[in-house]
Amino acid sequence: MKPLHPLLIDGVWTSPEESTDSFSAADPSTGEDLTAYFPLSGQATIDRLLNAAGLASRTLANTAPTALASFLDNYATAIDEHAEELATLAHRETGLPRRPRLLEVEIPRTIKQLRDAAQSARSEDWTMPTIDTAHDIRSRLESLAKPVLVMGPNNFPFAYNGICGGDFAAAVATGHAVIAKSHPAHPGTTQRLAELALVAATAAHLPPATVQLFYHCSPEVGLSLAGDSRLGAIGFTGSETAGRKIKAAADAVGTPGYFEMSGVNPVTILPGALVERPEEIAHEFCDSCHQGTGQFCTSPGLVLTVEGLGFDRFLAAAAKRFDGATLGPMLSRALPSHLKASVKALLHAGALMVARGTTPAETGFTVAPVLLRVSGRTFLNDPAVFQNEMFGPAALVVVAANSTELVQIAQRLNASLTGSIYSVTDQTDDLLYERISSILAPRIGRLLNDKMPTGVAVSPAMMHGGPFPAGGHPGFTAVGMPASLRRFGALRCYDHVRPHRLPASLRNENPTGKLWRSIDGVWTQSDASASG
Amino acid sequence: MKPLHPLLIDGVWTSPEESTDSFSAADPSTGEDLTAYFPLSGQATIDRLLNAAGLASRTLANTAPTALASFLDNYATAIDEHAEELATLAHRETGLPRRPRLLEVEIPRTIKQLRDAAQSARSEDWTMPTIDTAHDIRSRLESLAKPVLVMGPNNFPFAYNGICGGDFAAAVATGHAVIAKSHPAHPGTTQRLAELALVAATAAHLPPATVQLFYHCSPEVGLSLAGDSRLGAIGFTGSETAGRKIKAAADAVGTPGYFEMSGVNPVTILPGALVERPEEIAHEFCDSCHQGTGQFCTSPGLVLTVEGLGFDRFLAAAAKRFDGATLGPMLSRALPSHLKASVKALLHAGALMVARGTTPAETGFTVAPVLLRVSGRTFLNDPAVFQNEMFGPAALVVVAANSTELVQIAQRLNASLTGSIYSVTDQTDDLLYERISSILAPRIGRLLNDKMPTGVAVSPAMMHGGPFPAGGHPGFTAVGMPASLRRFGALRCYDHVRPHRLPASLRNENPTGKLWRSIDGVWTQSDASASG
Fold this sequence. Notes:
homodimer, alpha/beta, Aldehyde Dehydrogenase, Chain A, domain 1, Aldehyde Dehydrogenase, Chain A, domain 2, 3 domains, five-stranded mixed β-sheet, 19% strand, globular
């Protein structure tokens, strides 16, 4: 019998039942399976997780925000202190480079997110306290008082991990127990993180089931969990195929789910910019497309351009970068063949191969970067097929015959997280910019100028999300505090409730003198007038 | 052939196709069908509505908020000027009294909502502009740039009407064309309102399809419309049965829907209050339960109490009010028999009849108010059956043997829009209050103290909504500006966008000097620093 790694249930590292199926991750650098085995969980385990998390959530809904913040801060510190060890674990399971990616970018970002969430919990800025003194009606966002299920993706073992990423931080900061599902590509990293989380939660005197972990389950069990009305909300980052199924299960019982799925992130290069700086833009594009072996939800997968001298120079510069490129391995065994199949489908539909990188000789989940092109006319014949996401370092350049055709192409774009527009430095591209940006706006969450979409800043003004099916709800972002916290808030109103029974943040007196509240229509840090 | 009333499509009052089925409303006071006939619409009409509304929405998304506000204000004024005529129409179709209900309460409230929405459009306070100067990232809520479908209920011919109610006002104020579906109980009132709306929209130079109206359709056509991805969002107020189906259709294509459905609105009377002022509370309860013939989504349908002397006095006082009560007719032919069937089911399940009012001798959709009781023990045997909403002037009093049983009953409550708790004037009920209110909190949207739930103030701090299936999303309210407007907002981010291309409200300079914006984490009416 293979020894199986334990699950974290209600504060206890628990052996799975003996009959449990198991899986192991693989080392993308070598292609070899790792020898750590993790259990697939069944409904009995899910029930235990849900019941424990339900109890914990009812406690957490009434726990002082300072205790939640203390946990998040301590956990951030623990990740910082164990960064080398965690990066080594994650590198082995994902193939992502320890430096700069894991140790200098993703882990620091993860720590920042946890600390931002702690700060938001402490300040209660996400709760938007609103006071109507004339009616004596007061409201704010509060915990749902039910658990949040967080399912992270393959491509971020830290920043979006169900056990420590942005959704996790937002759910805990707003007073919820989290049931984290490990992505099966990096269960060992996730387990180690959960160990650190449990220690930090215990030190902050939070309920034992504040943080729980399971690794994997059958699709049936997963959908049963997503559709269980004991859940308060779901945070999901991953593929559209899986996301749609989970969303349907949650929708059926009215559970709000927040989904960050996919899209091709169109980059439009206007004629003036093509003429002005074709090589510079080509290099930015290639860097963005090759970064992380193209395994970002904001990877630029579609470039919209216009024929002409500038375009030829752009394409030549980009082709040169693709030709010579050798990238790191992909995250899992299936991804290189998926990418090859996607490329094949585009070629079959009429795209042409522009350039292809080299596949390193060594073993592992390696892949060659691919640059394709297609005419605007061909694209317009079947816009859907040319917008299938190619997950990995591949992109399709659509070459419009002229500006009119460029507009027609934009009008056929599906939903994406982002849309970038490059334009000439002076204002001569502005009329076309105006046209294209107004077509893009309802199709995307974030509009960029002269900038590639990869690199999602953790900013209060970020929108990392978009119209369905790029995101799950057009009004919410997965990244950036305090906005991402509001996803997990229930709006609760106190109508004529006696003052001593009100939450401190809704009493006339501002509890800290620093909390921003909307009182009679005005945002203020002052007290409400005593007449209220 | 019966002449059919026209539909409002793309700014033109349009005769339905000849083959169309039709319906008529009835006069609830007499029970007689009215002789105005309205068409049922098919897919061809729906397609025309959607296409016209799509075009209009793309224009409205970029229309000056002052023009939207001007339309809403002018429309409010037109309703005010035609109040007598509108009240007469609505009285005939709904049986609701012209005074005070329609002319003194509902129409003024409707006018206030339209004007509040205009004010919110003008001030842009719903958009929550957020600026991160260090990253040069800016975001705000914006129009979805797609139409909003608004379906109103039977019980508010004005305040929640798809053509002029709160959802309508919120959708237009945020830059959307509205496709309004009349409730089939009051199509004539709705048509007259649409006439006024069209005049006001034309005067404000809004696109002709800003306001469109159809009256009714088959369930198949309705679900096809709700599931059409040409829609941006749905606002629905009505029954849980219909709401669930529409929500499922919208969810399948990722369209955000906002649903305000049902619930029994539990009123808990704590032991001290029962002893202190049983008659006073009984009278408040009866007034609330009988108001509008009990046809409110916030009608108190369930009272939780505790045995004892106070309870006997409470019940006697309430029974006396029910015994003598003669109420106005219900809104439609089916409602009295639905109510009778609901009462019969409760009696069958073990409830006892406490008091029954009289049915007026005259014809019409009249009904006798009904007061039932059941023991806490019987309730706990089947909590679901005793929480089926009885739409109309009927309520069930649950009598717990003691406080412990009262807590157990509260723990079995389903989702509702509201929860009221009556307690003694001093603090001797407070321990039990604490327990009950913490159980209630995650099950309701609005908590009231010493107050019945009917009467939903149009307040910025209102939460009219609740957990599913009382509401559709726990984070949003259907009533109160600017919060209700935010339901229809898409969060859009501008990353490194050149200053002259930014929406005015996201530029460094505050466009009005009055707009509240969150700049680097601080709510302010000042400009952003020029370094940003």
